[in-house]
């Protein structure tokens, strides 16, 4: 079953004003909607623990009738659904069958940039806004993490057009200030203004941060890539740059840590027809894999850990085996979006061989990459614009989220689409 969340007016479970989408007013006026969900990342269930009596009040303080203290967040277990909540449940709590995610949104028409946490009610196919945080610039990438300065909580690292990363504590919804900043100006008063290189603290990126990825096997390490052609590794215990990788001469647009090896990183550069795999604990350990065309994105295979995939600017996708060393030929080549950019790829962490791809042709496709080739399972246009982000849910094997240049996100339950593929689901 396909579940596309198309919100002209969407309310949270408590009585609330319309939240994110103002597309209706634009359509009525005939104006072009310049709004996009540029990045999206699921929050694991274990991290979405705090309960809110009224999420709308916490998200929009101007509407509060009484003060709501941060202590109203209960950091216990999620509320179990006893089956008695109604279709129009309005208690504002996150139930055990809900799924939370963090996303970055921009509305260029209104110069409105936001990082928000949404909750997807799978049982009722409903999304509501949990909290939102204003940003000074358009968001480019977002990454959930649970470690900062030795504290375990729920954090979101977000990159914008600025040369540094802001990290927000999602368990403190009333605090719109970042809990930490990776890099940035020497003078904190210049946080959101254009700066010269000499005005940035040592270790900062010198240009826009494009990609972020948290190292789950080394939780105090976050990797960032930038238009300044470098990759930086940040120590989240100190918020300092621990290491800079200067192997590129072009902006680095793709980046992902290996699923089990804490030192292994795959990346790609803008316009380059090669992917690079490097061990960050060893010098001169990089491997280069020539691809059929310039790259847009990269992703490790979570079940066959020696394999990674690339998405190409001409719409193609290839899989490589790192055991073949530099110059190794692609294992599989296929064209999910021929003539368009393959802008996002994502493997299912529960189902071996299931790959999702997204494109500026506005389609999302599912592929079976088991065996010697790749076979298409489904390819659909959900009217969410050009696809910018894809993410399989870490707890729900059949739930895929997608976002793009349209005014709403997609929640696709793929159970029926893959029913005849004989996949084995590992929960």
Q: Which labels suit this protein?
A:
globular, mainly beta, disordered N terminus, 41% strand, 427 residues, single chain, 3% helix
Characterise the protein shown here.
This protein is an all-beta fold and 427 residues long. The chain is globular. The two termini are 20 Å apart. Helix content is 3%, strand content 41%. The strands form seven sheets. It has a four-stranded antiparallel β-sheet with strand order 1-28-27-26, with no helix packed on it. The protein has a four-stranded antiparallel β-sheet with strand order 2-3-4-5. A four-stranded antiparallel β-sheet has the order 6-7-8-9, with no helix packed on it. The protein has helices at 23-29, 55-59; strands spanning 2-4, 35-43, 98-107, 112-121, 126-135, 141-148, 151-159, 165-169, 180-182, 209-214, 221-226, 231-235, 240-245, 252-257, 264-269, 274-279, 287-290, 295-300, 307-312, 317-321, 332-334, 342-347, 354-359, 363-368, 375-381, 387-392, 399-404, 410-413. Mean pLDDT is 83; it is low at 3-33, 50-80 and 86-90.
């Amino acid at each position: 079953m396909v579940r596309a969340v198309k919100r002209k007016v969407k309310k949270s479970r408590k009585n609330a004003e319309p939240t994110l989408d103002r597309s209706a007013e634009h359509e009525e006026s005939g104006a072009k909607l310049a709004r996009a969900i540029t990045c999206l990342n699921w929050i694991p269930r274990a991290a979405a623990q705090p309960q809110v009596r009224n999420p709308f009040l916490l998200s929009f303080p101007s509407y509060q009738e009484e003060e709501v203290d941060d202590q109203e967040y209960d950091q216990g277990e999620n509320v179990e659904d006893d089956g008695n909540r109604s279709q129009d449940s309005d208690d504002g709590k996150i139930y055990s069958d809900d799924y939370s995610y963090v996303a970055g949104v921009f509305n260029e028409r209104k110069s409105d940039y936001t990082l928000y946490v949404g909750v997807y009610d799978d049982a009722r196919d409903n999304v509501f806004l949990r909290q939102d945080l204003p940003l000074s610039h358009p968001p480019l990438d977002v990454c959930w993490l649970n470690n900062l300065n030795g504290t375990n909580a729920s954090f979101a690292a977000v990159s914008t057009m600025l040369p540094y990363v802001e990290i927000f504590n999602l368990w403190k919804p009333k605090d719109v200030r970042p809990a930490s900043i990776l890099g940035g100006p020497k003078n904190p008063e210049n946080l959101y203004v254009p700066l010269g290189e000499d005005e940035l603290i040592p270790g900062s990126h010198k240009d826009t941060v494009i990609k972020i990825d948290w190292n789950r096997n080394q939780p105090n390490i976050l990797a960032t890539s930038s238009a300044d052609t470098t990759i930086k590794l940040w120590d989240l215990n100190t918020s300092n740059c621990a290491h800079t990788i200067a192997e590129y001469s072009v902006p680095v647009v793709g980046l992902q840590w290996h699923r089990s090896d804490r030192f292994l990183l795959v990346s790609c550069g803008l316009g380059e027809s090669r992917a690079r795999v490097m061990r960050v604990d060893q010098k001169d350990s990089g491997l280069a894999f020539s691809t059929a065309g310039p790259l847009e994105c990269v992703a490790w295979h979570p079940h066959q850990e020696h394999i990674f995939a690339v998405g190409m600017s001409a719409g193609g996708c290839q899989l490589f085996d790192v055991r073949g060393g530099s110059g190794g030929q692609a294992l599989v080549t296929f064209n999910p979006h021929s003539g368009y950019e393959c802008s996002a790829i994502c493997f299912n962490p529960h189902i071996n061989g299931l790959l999702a791809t997204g494109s500026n042709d506005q389609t999302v496709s599912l592929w079976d990459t088991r065996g010697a080739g790749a076979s298409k399972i489904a390819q659909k246009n959900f009217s969410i614009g050009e696809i910018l982000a894809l993410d399989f849910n870490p707890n729900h094997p059949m739930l895929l989220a997608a976002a793009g240049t349209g005014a709403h996100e997609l929640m696709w339950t793929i159970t029926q689409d893959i029913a005849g593929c004989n996949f084995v689901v590992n929960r």
